[in-house]
């Protein structure tokens, strides 16, 4: 990121200062512009101009005020009429009971002058009322417009202030980043190259994972084929043992040597394929098998796994299995053993236990 030019920074500072000064002047004069928010001042003004006490007109509904004003106007008109009537009666009585010399003489000219003065006062009063009504109408019409302009100006000032604060925060964040990450910084070209290297590395790792999966699948296939061969060899062994038992040959029978060699070779092949280290039958229904967990023949007993298979007497149904060995926890194989005990799959059990033990 390139450093901003000095002229651009000076321009931003000038704009910020002008904005702050405009905000200060606006806040100083804002009390004169809040017309819609000062109904109390308007109520005082109307009360003074209409001659009504402000304490009675304050905080009242406009409809109630209008009704009260009409009632008071009608009452004042009646009071004025009664006053004029009473005054006329009083003057008439005084003029009758008093001496003729002391009685005031009211001529037609005096009446005309009074009527003219009253008409003049009425005209001026009507003009003043019309002007007052126009002024009130203008105030009510312009107040929302002035308030709207004030709200827009205030919103613009707030926006400018927030933008100025964001500019300052961005500058501070940029300064912290420059202090945290001194030169040489990571450029766009270096970042693109690093991304390309990471993509290549991920592709290589994906290829390795795929190769490992293929190797695992091939190993599983080889193990499955080996189990099939083992089953066929076991069947052949059973048949041969049956033939040997039925033949009842002597020690000098020439067929014993080839059979012995074949059996030895088959046993060696099975041990090589499955890693069988030793096997024994402590009883008629129990079989102990010891397997090597490493591909090479073990030099000690640290890398051996022993499985004790117990069958139901007189049947080939698997009853229990015990797994032991150095570094082997039987709890890791309990669920696996239970699943194969239910299906009575001895060969599958041996293959699954060996596969899990050799992976761990």
UniProtKB/TrEMBL annotation:
The keyword Coiled coil applies. Residues 188-250 form a coiled coil. Residues 75-150 form the Kinetochore protein Sos7 coiled-coil domain. GO terms for cellular component: kinetochore. Keywords: Coiled coil. InterPro entries: Sos7 (IPR037475), Sos7_CC (IPR048781). It comes from the Eukaryota. One of its GO terms (biological process) is protein localization to kinetochore. This is Kinetochore protein Sos7 coiled-coil domain-containing protein. It comes from Leucocoprinus leucothites.
């Amino acid at each position: 990121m390139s450093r901003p030019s000095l002229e651009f920074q000076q321009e931003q500072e000038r704009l910020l200062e002008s904005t702050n000064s405009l905000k200060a002047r606006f806040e100083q004069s804002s009390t004169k512009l809040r017309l819609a928010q000062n109904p109390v001042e308007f109520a005082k003004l109307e009360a003074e101009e209409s001659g009504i006490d402000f304490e009675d007109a304050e905080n009242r509904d406009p409809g109630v005020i209008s009704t009260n004003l009409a009632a008071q106007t009608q009452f004042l008109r009646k009071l004025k009429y009664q006053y004029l009537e009473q005054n006329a009666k009083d003057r008439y009585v005084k003029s009758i009971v008093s001496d003729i010399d002391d009685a005031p003489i009211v001529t037609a000219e005096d009446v005309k002058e009074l009527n003219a003065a009253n008409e003049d006062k009425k005209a001026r009063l009507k003009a003043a009322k019309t002007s007052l009504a126009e002024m009130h109408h203008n105030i009510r019409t312009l107040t929302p417009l002035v308030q709207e302009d004030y709200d827009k100006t205030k919103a613009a000032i707030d926006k400018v202030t927030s933008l100025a604060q964001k500019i300052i925060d961005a500058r501070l964040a940029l300064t912290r980043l420059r202090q945290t990450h001194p030169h040489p910084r990571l450029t766009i070209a270096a970042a693109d190259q690093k991304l390309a290297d990471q993509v290549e590395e991920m592709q290589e790792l994906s290829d390795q994972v795929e190769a490992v999966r293929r190797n695992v699948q091939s190993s599983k296939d080889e193990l499955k084929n080996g189990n099939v061969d083992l089953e066929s060899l076991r069947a052949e062994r059973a048949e041969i043992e049956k033939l040997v038992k039925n033949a009842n040959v002597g020690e000098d029978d020439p067929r014993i040597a080839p059979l012995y060699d074949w059996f030895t070779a088959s046993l060696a092949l099975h041990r090589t394929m499955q890693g069988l280290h030793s096997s024994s039958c402590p009883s008629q229904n129990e079989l102990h098998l010891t397997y090597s967990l490493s591909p090479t023949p073990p030099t000690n007993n640290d890398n051996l796994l022993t499985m004790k298979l117990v069958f139901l007497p007189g049947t080939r149904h698997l009853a229990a299995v015990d797994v032991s060995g150095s570094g082997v926890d039987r709890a890791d194989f309990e669920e696996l053993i239970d699943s194969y005990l239910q299906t009575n799959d001895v060969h599958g059990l041996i293959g699954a236990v060996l596969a899990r033990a050799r992976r761990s």
